[in-house]
Amino acid sequence: MFIFACVNECSMKILFLTYHGFGEASGISKKMLAQIKGLRQNGHEVHVCSYARTKDGDCCRFVDDEVIRNYGRGAIAGIRQRMSYGCIADYCISNGIELVYSRNYQNASPWLISLFSRLSKASIHSVQEIPTYPYDEEFKGYPLDKKLGLFIDQLFRNRMAKQMDAIVTFSDAKEIFGQRTINISNGVDLDVIPLHKPVTNPDNEIHVIAVAEVHTWHGFDRFIHGLGEYYQKSPQKKVFFHIVGPVWDPEMNGSSRAPGFATYIKKYGIQDYVVFHGSLYGDKLNDVFNQCCFAVGSLARHRSGITHIKTLKNREYACRGIPFIYSECDSDFDHQSYIMKAPADETPIDISQVLEFIDSHHFVPADIRKTVEHLSWKEQMKQVVNQIRINK
Prior knowledge:
The chain is α/β, with parallel strands linked by helices. The protein is built from 13 helices and 15 strands. It has helices at about 25-40, 75-85, 85-95, 110-120, 145-160, 220-230, 250-255, 260-270, 285-290, 310-320, 350-360, 365-370, 375-385; strands spanning about 15, 45-55, 60-65, 65-70, 100-105, 125-130, 165-170, 175, 180-185, 205-210, 240-245, 275-280, 295, 325, 340. The strands form two sheets. The protein has a nine-stranded mixed beta sheet. It has a six-stranded parallel beta sheet with strand order 12-11-10-13-14-15, sandwiched between helices. The chain is globular.
């Protein structure tokens, strides 16, 4: 076995494979683009394979801006693209691709097994990133069509993993689906995340922010519940909770997994203190961040059966230089003075304790940012490539 250890002297031709397109306001898209940038910063030639619609409405698979397969239009096109991956293998083989970095989409299937098997036979290395592991519990309470997709994934994911060189994970797992892992942290792009520049608010106001494509495992209902209880006790300060990102109906109105935001907002009459901004980016996002002095990470990863995870959002908050709260175990931050740990249970967040934490500390954004400089995507992606076996 050989280890690829000299990135700058031995650059690789890499295909970054995603099974969907890119959105301007999508946090997932921003992460993938930062990973691609990190690979390129290490001297690699990186091409990007994605799936999206053209302006004419055709469903196409692209490599960079080139269409490598047009699947047509309508429902049949969606079925074709899930069963036809030969164009990816053809591209890799004809263009000298040495490594395929794919992002898990819970879509293991016989057709993807065939793709990665063909790549392996052509001596093309491949790894699969699983952003959240384990992920089965995330599907609790989802409609049948979503659960059917998970069931198919469960049937084939072990066989697909065998075709890989390794699984990339942000967990501490040493093996996933029978395949060895490469353990890294979620990274940050220090070039694009601005430093927090807090504005001066009235002395009796505290503004708190949470940014996410909101799901039940983010547990923002726990913070809203705590906010409601806080306002029942003749509070000395007004606390505003700003939620940035899309909020789906189960999170807003409740599901079998958690109470809805609206339930607590109506119960406690705190509609003036919970602000839903929707998706924001650029200056509009920065303006909301700068109004706030504290941030909220995930507060309910336990709902998905996860105890240890290195989430992207924690790193982005630290990169901005804003203190924050979360409930999971994250070895990059558990020891830092600028974080609060919430219990990993269903209790409401004690807002008085949050205020005490804010009042008793003075954090300099630049100092917080320095603690994550080693977590750049350049360094994280270097670890991945360095661990790829040149010869099986």
